[in-house]
Structures are given as structure tokens and as C-alpha cells.
């Protein structure tokens, strides 16, 4: 199936909305699996670098953090922990997360303000069900692998909302909203960092880039799979450079100035050129590059995701309804310990 480019005829969005309502009861959506599944889909589920899969603080104690001090103390512990985060917490800087941790917001309004969740040289971390804002970076990974960010809402930070850099690897970002921000997500360490080659493998699915201007994400060197994401009113969607391989599959781009952007070199023989294969995406009222037939990689060689894949026509409704923190996520996750 080819990519679909839609014009701005007023009947098209209306018809799409009506059809989605008519067929809502007939289409198998990922809502049930999103509620019940406490394991990531994609690169964070793949074995590598001495870790079988991403389990966070499973099999460890369960503790509750109600202050920034408690959160920082628990996050730095060396043993596995599931840290339940309660209420609205305001801090004054960086919380460093050690390996084998799950950070889980209780309820749909748990928030961290002026607190950056920082991981450097660690592995096996899960971050779920949190609003994070007004930090330098909301979430930052350096030399870190096996991380799952799920059902979060990231906005209004000083630099990036989610930066995956310096040979970080095996990352999944799912059901997360990015908004009120300029430079959203960076998956590389720069244009001249060949040591990132073979790393930065990331899956992004069922996320909403809601008016986030750029870097949705910006990718260099890694193998990145973006599927079933919703893009709304962005300056550009996926930025490419430095021999990255991006598989963009069944995403819905709405009013995006440049859905797929070559950051530096249009010549595919140039070392700063990035590659993207665009498969069954929808482009509605978009400009710029919409249909890059470039090479990518076969995600199915590394993990199964067909059971989580939605038809592209249903992506706007499904993502808007289910993205971000939810009341049931914390309860289901704690019961699954």
C-alpha cells in the first residue's frame, strides 16, 4: 500500500471521523494491550549488551516517593526498585537513575516539575505514567541501554524533552505526548560521532508530537522504527543525517511543514546523509518531503510488532484517546510485580 496524501477538502476529515466512529467496535485497537501489557514492544524488548530484556525494578522492593528528595534517594539505590511516585513534585535539578529501576506515576496527574530524569552508563530502566516539565531535559540518556518510556507527557523544558545520545541503545518510547516545545527528541550525539554507529536503536510507537516544532525525532547513525505516531502542526517531523536508517510506518502527519527532512546532504553517497523508508503513512495538509523511498531496515528481523500495529486511518483517534498518563497504568503495573 502506498503512502496516502490527503488534501484539505472539508469533507475528508469529517468523513474520516464518521468512519472511525462507525468502525470503532469492529477494529481491534491496541487499547486493551496498552492497559494490560507491562512489557515494551520494540528495541527495548531485544536481548543485547548483557541484558535479556527491559524489566526495570521487577523482583525488587516497591517504595513510594512523595518528595524530590525521596525520589533522588530511591533512584540512586544500587538494588532493583519499583518507585511509585505520588502527587505533584517540584525539584531543583537532576535526579540520577541507577540501573534496574521502575519509576511509575500513580494516577493520571502525577507530575515532576524542574526535575530532569538523567541516566548515564546504566541499563534496565522503565519510566511510566508521568507528566514532566520545566527541567533542562525531561529525560536524558547517555551510554545507557534497555530503557522503556511509556504513557508520559513531556513539555516545556529548556533543551530537549527526550535525548538519547552517546551510544545509548535498545530504547522504546510508547504512548507519550510531546508538546509546547521546540527541540523535542534527539537520537544522536552530533554529526561527527561515528562511535554511535551500531548503537541508538530505538522504537517510537503510538506517540503524539503535538505541535512540537522540530526533532520529532532527529536521528543520526541509529536504526529507528517509528510507527503509528501522530504528528500535528510541526515544523518538521523526522530529521535525518549521518547514515541513520529510519523505518517510518503507518504514521499520520497533519499540517506538518516538512514530514521527512534531510538535515544536511541530499546526496545519498555523502556521509552526512540519512535514510528513511516511508511505508503506508498518511500526509494531510503537509508540504515538503512526504514520500522518501530510501532504504531502512527490517524491524521484524529483531522483534514482533504486528499485534500492536494499527491501521493508519485509526491512528489519530487511538493516539489522542490513549496517549499520556492514565489512571489504570499504575494499578496494573503494581499488581503485575
From TrEMBL:
Listed Gene3D superfamilies: Single-stranded right-handed beta-helix, Pectin lyase-like (2.160.20.10)
PANTHER family recorded: PECTATE LYASE 18-RELATED, PECTATE LYASE 21-RELATED
Subcellular location: Secreted
Key words, A-Z: Carbohydrate metabolism, Lyase, Polysaccharide degradation, Secreted, Signal
InterPro entries assigned to the protein according to its UniProt record, in alphabetical order: Pec_lyase, Pectin_lyas_fold, Pectin_lyase_fold/virulence, PEL
Any GO MF annotation of the entry: pectate lyase activity
Chief subcellular location: secreted
Protein name: Pectate lyase/Amb allergen
GO terms classed as biological process: polysaccharide catabolic process
Lineage, broadest ranks: Bacteria, Pseudomonadati, Planctomycetota, Planctomycetia, Pirellulales
Residue ranges constituting the Pectate lyase domain according to the UniProt record: 61-259
EC numbers for this chain: 4.2.2.-
An annotated GO cellular component: extracellular region
Signal peptide boundaries: 1-34
Membership in a protein family: Belongs to the polysaccharide lyase 1 family.
